[in-house]
User: What shape does this take?
Amino acid sequence: MSMQLRAMNEGDLDSAFALTQQMKWPHRRADWQQALQLGEGVVAVENGRVTGTALCWRWGNDYATLGLVMVDGAAQGRGIGRQLMLAVLDKLSGSHIRLHATEAGKGLYEKLGFVASGNVEQHQCRQLAAIAGWPLAADQRLRRGQPEDAPLLTALDHQAHGQYRPQLIAGLLASDQPVLVLEQGEHPAGFACLRRFGHGYAIGPIIAQDLSQAKLLVSQLLSGLSGQFVRIDTDAASGLGEWLTTLGLAEVDAPTIMYKGTPWQPAAGGMRVFGLMTQAMA
Ligand SMILES: CC(C)(COP(=O)(O)OP(=O)(O)OC[C@H]1O[C@@H](n2cnc3c(N)ncnc32)[C@H](O)[C@@H]1OP(=O)(O)O)[C@@H](O)C(=O)NCCC(=O)NCCS
Assistant: This one.
């Protein structure tokens, strides 16, 4: 059976969505659409049918992420995953690349030069209990982000993980869900985004200077989500996960963070990542 690779386009979204359903991944068709709009992808096609996908996101000149790598169960083990990976890696030469590996994907990524660098924890709950937003300190102020905040939030996001994502941030600010901005004294101290994703809501990106500011932002967003499905993906090293568990957001998965290139080192005292956009877009 001859297999061809070609660029992914909007016409492939139904097939891609069907593949994630087969994998029991939670993505809605709208989540796929957003992922493709912000990035680019390659599909494997056999007899006119899409049997595999791999996507990547170039976030500026230096850092990129890669994800939504999957091959139809009936077509696995025939080299399609490897070819999809080589095709997306070709688009990213010169970038430091981050991905989050399932157990199934880890072996393939290692063979392609990716090195493990910790874990991401996926925390979620089906029906969030009532949670109170943390009170603000005297010098703190919370406000809803506006479209004109895009350059500021893009800069904070970049400081935290080296990814330059103006389109993503502008899209989040334009959506009907809130982006919460924390100010401390005269300075921005972080932000957190509420989004519709998968089975309900996701919170992320979560960017802040320290853990208590991240918790403040998250608690404020969670206070409006009682009874809802909520998901947060956070680096295990961030320290947020343990607190999320106490709020009823159990850890349900812990994919391996892998890099090809050099992991970003945030400046001391600067912004840090406490929650991902998604595992694929990081
Ligand atoms: C991961 C996945 C995309 C691989 O696709 P595939 O078409 O089956 O993979 P390939 O046939 O191209 O095999 C790729 C290589 O990885 C190797 N490999 C696969 N699984 C491995 C494992 N668990 N340990 C070590 N090596 C492994 C294969 O031997 C092969 O090596 P080779 O090219 O040197 O022979 C596929 O299994 C899949 O869709 N899994 C479910 C979704 C998923 O978990 N995706 C990864 C998200 S991070």
User: Anything to note?
Assistant: DSSP finds eight helices and 14 strands in the chain.
